[in-house]
What does this fold into?
Amino acid sequence: MNAPVPPPSSKPRPPPGPPWDTPLSEAPLAFIDLEMTGLDAKRDRVVEVCIERVRGGTVEERLHTLVRPEGGEIGNVHVHGIDAAALAGAPTFAEIADRVEELLSGAVLVAHGAAWDVAFVHAEMRRAGRDFTVGFWLDTLNLSRRAFGLAKHSLDALRAHFGIDSARAHRADADVLALREVFARCVAALDSTAPGPVTTPRDLWEVRIAEGRVREQILAQCKEAVAAGREVTLVYRARSRPAEPMRMVLTTLELGLDPPRVIGYQLPGRGRRDLRADRILRIETDDDIDRTNPSRNLPKDGH
It folds into this structure.
């Protein structure tokens, strides 16, 4: 007998209400990119910041500045091209901390590889004597992995794939422009494959893939499909491949695995398939398809 679907995850989730449940066209999104002297937030420092607070595609507020570490660090000049001379007259992070907090507060932070940016914001804020944290964010690295069947999902790889200008790659302002373009493409792609329309930042937060997290709606649909024993159309995105529809009969839902697995056979050949539930984008029954495409029910040849 199949185990029951577990209750909703007890892991922390974005708090209800704005900005996470605000329509995407109205939600404040804070696109951020940092250039740092290295990758260790405890030791390395931020040398450039760009934050664009965007609502409905319009930039409402913006901060772009070089940042001078108090200890004179410059770090990876070969990556970002920012040398000691460029930083000489720049403000310290403590001097821009008020503005950074103002732009990020009440907005959904969006970044590529966001955990790095968030870790550095937290570290710099602590050095500036600020008690400021970002609890939840959207990561275009994870969104891209869910949306596109590409071999690589770095910002450089996405620039190349989508033809986004790379002349000033690894400078914070240019990377934010690329980030916003990638985000828009992710939203468009996921809106066409998610179980329901992508209408809020929370909908995007729910489609994370790197953590092996399965949406409760998908688990519930899998359980119903197993119990009914009837054919369903399952949209699945395997690693480094585009999403593809699969006609299947689901037979087993293995909840004891991490991530859960869905087992069944694929039609018309009835080959056995063992699928990761976190990579299932959508499940549709024939009734679902008929409701969204009434023309399927029209008689042929006018009869």
